[in-house]
Specification:
The radius of gyration is 22 Å and the shape is globular. The chain folds into two domains: 119 residues, Alpha-Beta Complex (Aspartate Aminotransferase, domain 1); 233 residues, Type I PLP-dependent aspartate aminotransferase-like (Major domain) (Aspartate Aminotransferase, domain 2). It starts with 6 loop residues before the first helix and ends in a 12-residue tail after the last helix. The longest helix is centred in the C-terminal third of the chain and has 20 residues. It is built from 15 helices and 14 strands. The strands form three sheets. Strands 4-10-9-8-7-5-6 form a seven-stranded mixed β-sheet, sandwiched between helices. Strands 1-2-3-12 form a four-stranded mixed β-sheet. Bound molecules: pyridoxal-5'-phosphate (PLP). The site of pyridoxal-5'-phosphate (PLP) has 14 residues, from helix 5. Pyridoxal-5'-phosphate (PLP) binds next to helix 5.
Length: 398
């Protein structure tokens, strides 16, 4: 018999450990979606956990665009972009995205995760340094690991610490990457200060605007334009199509030479099947609506304000966020989980976010708002939050 350890046994032991710590992740199947209403285990729940911030995921124009192209072109793209998968719908969407974000070109990726892996792997090599905010999305961290560059993280939003990290390797080529809107906290990165720092240090700045695109800035063009920054200050912009745009997929936008370079060397772009052309058509329709229908952003802003005011009246310790992501800190993972369960019993679906997705001791309810919510939906949620066990989320948070 070999004395080699078994990989599958080790994985099972790790899962058992997570179970012990009450951190086991579980998959739940949504039986039906209707706006903010989700059916789960035969019960109608009001959802406050989707990223459909503008309420576009079920818009008739997106559905019609998708159906039209499916009827004409079929479902699959049948190939990678560089073989024969790149269709007119992809090309049109890329042009629209470049124009929207004020950049020379855009390149589609199948998911945001792959876009970040692709950008970091293409730009960075083993001799380089990648400086990142500690609360960046997991796929930015994974992309840096894949690239082999030295990864240095700085405390959340701490410009001085970011400068010190860059200063440790003054002669190395450097990329500073940050979320535009932080996915679990909802706050906005200090983009102007980061841009100034990068310009002084000769580093390139990359912004992942998964939660800013569609929501922030004029015509929803995102956090970078909202901060008054362009392609010169932020040469690498990545954003997703699966959140405020209600579709699926992602893109990188920047100079023509950046995009051409990614096309040559971003492996998660080259070696994968292009997204279905019908999805690209649906995303184009979503961008048109997101740009034109400013009322969706105004509606979202009004809901955010209503929610914050209601929470303040109840003495709830919302984390400081001006965006659709309104986290309520519990600290203890069990308390956050118990709160999510209690809310579900009252008809609300809110996700408890626990370590390692967030730092230890910072478990929270990640409450997300959408233009699809009604005022009374919010009021009902607030009432339920107010009835949660005393002390669980009240008082100052860390
Ligand atoms: C959701 C998200 C991603 C991943 O995008 P997908 O298209 O879902 O793979 C990347 N970055 C951030 C900040 C995200 O929130």
């Amino acid at each position: 018999m070999s004395s080699r350890p078994s990989l599958l046994s080790r994985l099972a032991a790790q899962t058992a450990e997570r179970e012990q710590a009450n951190l086991r992740r579980r998959l739940r199947t949504i039986e039906h979606a209707d706006g903010p209403w989700l059916e789960l285990d035969g019960k109608q729940l009001l959802s406050f956990c989707s990223n459909d911030y503008l309420g576009l995921a079920q818009h008739p124009q997106l559905i019609a665009a998708l159906k039209r192209v499916v009827d004409d072109e079929g479902v699959g793209s049948t190939s990678a972009h560089l073989i024969c998968g790149h269709r007119a719908e992809h090309a049109a969407l890329e042009e629209t995205l470049a124009e929207w974000t004020g950049r020379e070109r855009a390149l589609l990726f199948s998911t945001g995760y792959m876009a970040n892996l692709g950008v970091l792997q293409a730009l960075l090599g083993a001799d380089d340094i990648c400086v990142q905010d500690k609360l960046n999305h997991a796929c930015l961290l994974d992309g840096a690991k894949l690239s082999g560059a030295e990864l240095k993280r700085y405390p959340h939003g701490d410009i001085g610490a970011a400068a010190r990290q860059l200063g440790t390797r003054p002669h190395a080529a450097a990329l500073l990457a940050t979320d535009g809107v932080f996915s679990m906290d909802g706050d906005i990165a200090p983009l102007r200060e980061l841009a100034t720092l990068c310009s002084r240090e000769g580093a390139s700045l990359m912004v992942d605007d998964a939660h800013g695109i569609g929501v922030l800035g004029d015509e929803g063009a995102g956090s970078v334009l909202a901060a008054g920054l362009g392609q010169h200050e932020v040469p690498v912009l990545m954003a997703t199509l699966g959140k405020a745009l209600g579709c699926h997929g992602a893109f990188v936008a920047g100079s023509a030479s950046l995009i051409d370079g990614l096309l040559q060397s971003a492996r998660p772009y080259i070696y994968t099947t292009a997204m279905p052309p019908a999805l690209a058509a649906a995303a184009s329709a979503a961008v048109r609506l997101a740009r034109a229908e400013n009322w969706r952003r105004e509606r979202l802003a009004a809901l955010i304000k209503r929610f914050q005011q209601g929470a303040a009246q109840l003495g709830l310790a919302l984390m400081p966020s001006a965006t659709a992501i309104q986290p309520l800190l519990f600290g203890d993972a069990d308390a956050a989980l118990a709160a999510a369960k209690a809310l579900e019993q009252q008809g609300f679906l809110v996700s408890a976010i626990r370590p390692p997705t967030v730092p230890k001791g910072q478990a929270r309810l990640r409450i997300t708002l959408s233009a699809a919510h009604e005022d009374e939906h919010l009021d009902q949620l607030l009432e339920a939050l107010g009835k949660l066990p005393q002390g669980s989320a009240a008082g100052p948070h860390v």
